[in-house]
# Entry
Amino acid sequence: MIKQAVEKSINDQINAELYSAYLYLSMSSYFESKNLGGFAHWMTVQAKEEVNHAMKFYGYINERGGRVTLKAIDSPPVNWKSPLDVLENVYKHEVKVTGLINKLVNLARSEKDVATENFLMWYIDEQVEEEASADAIVQKLKLIKDSANGLFMLDHELAQRE
Ligand code: OFO
# Structure
């Protein structure tokens, strides 16, 4: 049986993951409005990944005999200044989520919940990837600066994400 404090924090994390999905869908829609279909596609794939992250936590609470309690999801922003602004915000958001996962690990440790600590290791690895992939696009956008050609090529590259 999962301890109450751990169950509550994982429920909060489900909300945070679903907020991430909302945020990335909103970003996808921003890119659609700018006719950057590749960026929009990348963000949609990212949003789906976030739903998967939430569902993995959902399954875990159930598996441990806990109760999932869903809370309201905040509205994400709608507008950004530029593609670089969007991706810098993705990166910032992922760093924040990494902090939340780290806090969960610390809680599992202090509650001596080894199973949860072990379960969370998947998220630790995933966050390394999430931060790296957002940062890679930020760096490319910084290189591209105001080049329409560069943006077009990056958009094409991001359209290939599976
Ligand atoms: Fe779920 O990793 Fe991003 O937020």
In short: Residues 17, 20, 50, 53, 94, 97, 130 surround hydroxy diiron-OXO moiety (CB under 6 Å).
